[in-house]
Amino acid sequence: MGDIIKELKIPNDSYFFISDEGKKGKKLMNLSKINIFIGENNSGKSRLLRHIIKEDVIHFVPSNKDFDKLNLFIPEINTKMKKEFKKYQNIDIFKPIFDNLPNKKLDFLISGEDPCYSIVNSYNAIKKLETEKSSSLDGTRLPVFGKQMKELFEVYFKEYFKKYRSIEELQLKYEFIKVYIPILRGLRPINYGESAVSLKGEKIYPPEYIDRDVYKIRTIADYFVLDETNIKKQKEFDDNIVFSGLNAYQEIRKHMLNENDKDREMIEEFEVYLSENFFGYEKVKLTPAENQDGTKKDVILVKIGKEQGKPIYDLGDGIQSIIIITLPLFLYKDKIKDNKKVLMFIEEPEHLLHPSLQRKLIETFNQKRFEDFQFFFTTHSNHFLDISLDFEGISMFTVNKYLDDDNNPNFLVENVDFGDNNLLNLLGIRSSSVFLPNCNIWVEGPTDAFYIRRYLNIYQDYMKRNNKNFIKFDEDRHYSFYIYNGSDLSNLLDLSLNNEDRRINRLLLIRDGDTEKDKKKKEYNDKLRVKLGNNFELLSCWEIENLLSKPVILETLKNDKRYRNIQLDENFREEDYKNVDLGDFIKEKICGNQITWNPIKKKKKFYEKVERNIVSWNNLSKDSKKLCEKIFDFIKENNS
Question: Which residues pair with residue 16 across a beta bridge?
């Protein structure tokens, strides 16, 4: 993942942020790749986003570890240098060195500024001493002294920054592109400017361009009007900040007609993205429609597979919403250079989106090609909270408004975990408010869901590539995962329903094979077989981790630095670890008892390392492929 903002200074007296120590402060901390702000209506969450957008410069702490190293290096080099120079006080030639040398740690970086600028100047002033021809210093010639100081600087620099040859290579200057997607958004222009409107098929407006993005104009007028005397600054803000979707036609047309290959390739990449994620791998073609005389119609035609192309407004509102939110990702992706980053601010992205599309949106945000993007959005959707359990790099914040002694509104922002019931209270969530998918897959733990989700996605992608008529199913739309516990099993067995009941048929329950070793758990298994029939699946192995293929296990261990000095025994078969504790097998057999830790004790951490090596159909073991077929058939049956 690329660098992100980890902490952000908010210079607004109305906002207070709860730190990890429970104290009020002016820093928004614990930021992640995706940041979700939750609160009641009029709680101040949208105002917070817009306040960040309006700031000319951003004071922030990056996730880049070089920033932390720089803050260790600064006091160290300051102390060492001053100690050496102290005996030569009041010498004018040293003034540039002392003037530029930082004397304290940096609380924040400032966008557009290089924190190393003054250090580089100080370093250059030290190097300049080597060329001085003036008199000696207490018996030491200046060039000799300058060389000593330069070497001293470089020794300490290398101590902290081993991968860099010099201070000039240290890149901690960041610039940010901000994109704001307001709640007022759409793909269908509603204003045709000053020209006459005809409903009989004649010209709707003249060919010259008139800015019809009334949503953008209205949003800026309401929230972002800057100093009227600074026209240039206002113009830059208008062009680069607000994306309402109404200019999507112009953007697509401009990129498709551009002579620059990269611009056309960007639209093609966006079309492939839409095809793979929303149209079952059917080829998607976007075309900006024109009248016969060449005048623009401001309508995007969408051709899917062999269908006749149809206007964008004939697509579902959810797909239109997805296009509005994701098109800017592709528009800005190729504009990122050096340490430039994109900050995306989105108002209620769930607007018009089915829960399955909300999941696809989070998956999109997490794609590697968008590693230089960071997301901030407000929401009232409990589905985003559910989805956050399945992804790393998501932070959630509650925003609450209260009045001070003078009845002025103040806002309290706090970083919270999903388990905080306050989240559900703020969203007003009840069980009846949840969109239920057509069937549920019950698993024993979160990592079971991680593995099965990964396997199932690979299975469906593989099948689709080999059969264009293969129908893929989406999580949270066609099926969902449920993490069950002992009481859930007891309640399920107490239900006076048999396996002929539709409600039972919508449930597939998966149990680890090791449950057969425990008398009480085996009794549960026997009862569940009777209750659920074919919808009870006992894994053919010890636990979900035992489904891993031999090559994936070995590749995972080889890529883990903890095993670099361990001679791994590769002389084993998948059957050898199928029904034993995998942690013990890795420790005793593969590593020959050369390690003292349990390799899979922290199951989620182990999965995160394994996941990198499960990327294709060939990475799946024979048993995991069989499990995929079983689960897919279950989902298909409940969605036909």
Answer: 412
With contact defined as beta carbons under 8 Å apart, do 397 and 378 qualify? no
The interaxial angle of helices 117-128 and 142-160, nearest 10 deg, is 150
Under a CB-based contact definition with an 8 Å cutoff, are residues 153 and 77 in contact? yes
Of 588 and 217, the structure prediction assigns the larger pLDDT to: 588
**Which residues is 537 bridged to in the sheet?**
510
**Smallest Cα–Cα separation from 274: which of 249, 293, 302?**
302
Report whether 55 contacts 46 (CB < 8 A): no
Task: Give the span between the Cα atoms of 305 and 275, in whole angstroms.
Answer: 9
φ and ψ at residue 391, rounded to 5 degrees: -130, 145
Q: What H or E segment, with its residue span, contains residue 532?
A: helix 519-532
Percent of the chain at pLDDT > 70 equals: 84
> Do 544 and 452 form a contact (C-beta atoms < 8 A)?
yes
Q: Are 25 and 17 in contact (CB under 8 A)?
A: yes
133: pLDDT confidence band, cut at 50, 70 and 90? Answer: low
CA distances from 75 to 154, 155, 173 (A): 15, 15, 20
The 8-class DSSP code of residue 157 comes to: H
Q: What is the mean pLDDT of the chain?
A: 83
> Strand (E) positions, 39-168?
59-62, 109-110
Short-list 448, 363, 468, CA closest to 624: 448
Other beta carbons within 10 Å of 593: 8
3-class DSSP state of 604: helix
Inform me whether the pLDDT recorded for 428 exceeds 70. no
Q: What is the pLDDT of residue 392?
A: 79
Q: Which residues contact 28 (CB under 8 A, 6 or more apart)?
A: 7, 8, 9, 10, 17, 397, 413
pLDDT at 92 over 70: no
Give yes or no for a contact between 143 and 129, defined as CB atoms under 8 angstroms apart. Answer: yes
Q: Which residue has the tokens 């003054």?
A: 118
- Classify strands 409-416 and 15-18 as parallel, antiparallel or unpaired: parallel
CA atoms within 13 A on the CB side of 77: 31
Residue 183 has pLDDT above 80, yes or no: yes
Mean pLDDT in residue range 236-265: 82
**Listed residue (370, 289, 290, 296) closest to 327, CA to CA:** 370
Mean pLDDT lowest for which of 22-36, 48-62, 551-565? 22-36
d(CA 435, CA 426): 18
CB–CB of 616/458 below 8 Å? yes
Helix, strand, coil % in the chain, rounded to nearest 5: 45, 15, 40
Instruction: List pLDDT tens digits, range 530-578.
Output: 989 999 999 999 999 999 999 999 999 999 999 989 999 999 999 999 9
Please compute, for residue 212, the number of CA atoms within 13 A of its CA located in the half-sphere on the CB side: 27
